[in-house]
Amino acid sequence: MSKESDQLYSELKAAWERYARLKRKADRTLVLEDGLAARRAWIDFQNVGDEQSQIARVHGGNVAVFPAHKMRRPHAAG
C-alpha cells in the first residue's frame, strides 16, 4: 500500500475504534449524552478522507429542501 493509503487506513481504524468504544458505552448506559457522543463519532468515521462530505454530514445533508416556486398553493374548500 502507498503511504497515503496507509495513513487513510490508520485514520479509518482509529475513527472506527473510537466509534465502537463510544457505541458500546451508549448501549451499556442508555444515557442520551453517551448516544450523542457515539453519533458524533460515527459522523467523524464517515468523514475520514472525504473533506467534501464533512459539510453535508455535519450540517444535515440528508434533509430535502423543496423549491418553493414549484409547490402548489392549497385550494380553498368550498
Describe this structure in words.
With 78 residues, the chain is mainly α. The protein has one domain (3-70). 65% of the residues lie in helices and 0% in strands. The protein has three helices and no strands. α1 (3-29) packs antiparallel against α2 (32-47) and α2 (32-47) runs antiparallel to α3 (51-58). The model has no long low-confidence stretch (mean pLDDT 81).
Short description:
The protein has 78 residues and is an all-alpha fold.
Q: What keywords describe this structure?
A:
mainly alpha, 65% helix
Distance between the termini: 71 Å
Low-confidence stretches: none
What is the helix content? Answer: 55-70%
> Rg to the nearest angstrom?
20 Å
Shape: flat
- Tally the structural domains: 1
- Which H/E pattern describes the elements? HHH
Number of helices: 3
Main sheet: strands, sense, barrel: none
Number of strands: 0
Q: Hey, roughly how much beta strand do the residues contain?
A: under 5%
Structural class: mainly alpha
Task: Give the secondary structure arrangement, pairings included.
Elements: H1 3-29, H2 32-47, H3 51-58
Helix pairs in contact: 1-2, 2-3
